[in-house]
Amino acid sequence: MVIYLNVLRVMSINKLALDSHKNIRFGIQTFFHIGDSIIPYAHSHNFYEIFFVTEGSAIHWCNSVQTPIESGSLIFIRPEDTHQYLDSTQDFAFYNLVFSKDTFDKIFSLYDRKLIEENLLDRDLPPGIKLNQGDIEIYKRKFQRDISTLDLKIRSLHNVELLTSLLPLFITSNFYKVNRQPDWFQKLTMEIERDANYTKGVNYLYSIATRSREHVSRNFKKYLNVTPTEYINHKKLIYASNLLIQTNLEILDISDMAGFPSHSHFYNLFKKEYKTSPRKYREKNLLSYI
């Protein structure tokens, strides 16, 4: 039997077990697992998952390879991975964040697809990192905030912020090393992702870069093949598109929350990126919450 604690509501055990293996077409959802609630058998799913161990330890069996995991372990599970947890301690517990293939593709569309495939998708084992104690406490609070938030709109905002702060950790661990980006540049892109700082705009990026604007611009073109403005706008559009399909917020409010200087600017950039208007995008992809 599987028990999931959903951030939207606590549902019956059987209903949750069924819902957890349905197709996740759009959006992001957060869950918590502990003790007997953890799936005891090898399984896979048709969505992406990031799990974060908060307490205890276990053996993570994945694709026929066993790896010890403990508090601070952060693992990126892909749809084709088969995994389970073995020999877990009594206090073993973890959060996980699940998100659709559509969401993954939107977030990573800015990066070189070949490098993403080589360093995140085509590896025999899923990417994993070990957080330091300070980051463990930070992400405990972030996940707990999502679990305890019942308001749908706020919960959706938290989920988007959480995912966009977690994914750069894996990019830095894999993609950035292969691409030989300098440390200051890696830290800059991580900081701009943290807590949706990209909504503060390109001037905020320049202000925390500790480098001249010209130097920053050259590095963005060199390593990401975009200008800083294009990078920031892309992140804002991902943020806005997730709010469109996960909340009932007014489109003008979403434009403001994503940090666009004018509604017409948001509309024009959105239509250029997604080949449709924000309203039609929402109608096509709207996520229905039961």
TrEMBL record:
InterPro entries: AraC-bd, Homeodomain-like_sf, HTH-like, HTH_AraC, HTH_AraC-typ_CS, RmlC-like_jellyroll. Signal peptide: none annotated. The keyword DNA damage does not apply. GO terms for molecular function: DNA-binding transcription factor activity; sequence-specific DNA binding. Residues 186-284 form the HTH araC/xylS-type domain. It comes from the Bacteria. Keywords: DNA-binding, Transcription, Transcription regulation. This is AraC family transcriptional regulator. It comes from Thiospirochaeta perfilievii.
